[in-house]
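Input sequence (362 aa), recorded before submission:
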Amino acid sequence: MSNSSIFLGMIFILFILFSCSEEKNELVVKRSSIVESVYASGIIKSKGQYTLFPKTNGILKNILVEEGDLIRQNQVLFVIENENSKISSQNAYLLKEFNSFNNQKDKLDDILLQIDLAKSKFKSDSINFSRQKTLWTKKVISDIEFEQAELLYKSSKTQTQSLQKKYNDLKKQLQFSEDQSKKTYELSSNNENDFLLKSDLTGKIYGILKEKGEMVGPQNPLAIIGSDKEFYVELQIDEKDISKIEKNQPLEIKLDSYPNQSFSAQITKIIPILNERTKTFTIEAVFSVQPKILYPNLSLEANIVINKKEKALVIPFNYLTLNEEVVLPDGSKRKVKIGLKNFENVEIIHGLKENDRIILPQ
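Predicted structure, token format:
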């Protein structure tokens, strides 16, 4: 075979390949539905999920649950020990008992006895003063004798009044001491309850973050707790997309733990403040039908449906140039006007019609 024959054969093969390539890249414009959506990433959270923190400092004496345990509301989960607080509580109890009104009643009884004696003396002195006054008026006794009787009368009267005031003051003081000691003990008891950490809800222990014997305080998280049945989705939305987001919008969710599946959900809450560090907004959504098995912090991706159109003129996004043009089979370019778009497709609202042919831009 001559060299010229080989050369002609190669040209023919290249022509065929080139023609096939062009045929492969050619697209017939068709109508179909298009969904415009906003992408978001996020995690699964348990309903009511919270991190349990101690209210006081101390040693983690007992851990009464394990990770994965189902728990009841108000169930004691952890016990913290603080010897100083324990002693303070005991002292508060002793002080309450000591200052109880009944325990101090003897002091009042002593004064009541003194008041009874003073009243008896006052009565006697009063009668005597009345007699002496009558005699003094008749000039039977001297002025000195009358003045002595009057002095005894006034003295016993003052003594009676003074003891009565002393009784009333002591009664108020004892009542105040009792009330104050009770309040101190109640406060101490409340503080003692702070050493028994309880669950705020019925659910599950998802994580225990400390070990028995460790020092803990209000800044140290102890456990992650949440519902064992109900879950929701927490998503991060870029600030440039937040104006498109509204409550009740539908979305499709994909979970790494459920490959090749998607789940429908609906937006229930938009947290109206920008995270300055990540430049994102947080939104929440609930599943239309919740997957059977979920755990907090499972990662996910979501597409939030912003708009949907049926029978739209649609082309793949990669057939559109950066200048919003399409390439015709003869290589010429045509300006188009676009409508809805997503990561895969774009709607053409002007510049093309159904069954037009375009090719992939080079």
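Checked by second reader. The first strand starts at residue 26 and ends at 28.
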